[in-house]
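Worked Example 4.2. Consider the chain below.
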Amino acid sequence: MEQAWPLLEELFFSASYNLSHDVTPHAFVSLLQNCPRLVLVAVLINWSTIDRRDISLVIPYQGFSHKALSQVYFGNPRIGHPTRIAAFISAIAPNVGSIDAWDPDFHEDHPDFEKYSARWKLVQRLVESFSMVREQERRTKIRGPFVEVGGEVGGGDEDEDEDEEIRYSSDSEEEE
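Applying the procedure from the previous section yields the following structure tokens:
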């Protein structure tokens, strides 16, 4: 299907169309590989194959990365290891700026809303952080090491409560 749409920029699959959570991360990557202009996608993905594996030193999909994708909506998937999910998303779609899951307009009454909403917010922050680290590495390779004298280590923009939340939300504590 996606091979017929190389110019596709936005794609929305909805659970109301009888699409189950059986879309695999592999199928998601195939969609991205065949739709290079895709900037926004809403699809329900079963993240269990990524969630249950440790992060590998091998880059997923031989280093494929989709540069155009900037917004994703994943519905309400339950995940146990946000770092693993974030590492995968960051590797295949490094320019994603918005990751939405567990939208309160649709899922706020769900008994697990708080737990999984928090995990997906952590995924969003981690993807942003991984992107910044990659950019630092690229700049170091191009220009050599650069140290900002007198600057703060973390950049100084983050709220200290957020830093504490990230420390508290490690994968080992989130697994249930």
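The longest strand covers residues 10-12. Helices lie at 25-34, 48-51, 82-92, 104-107, 113-143, 160-168, 171-174. Compare this with Example 4.1 before moving on.
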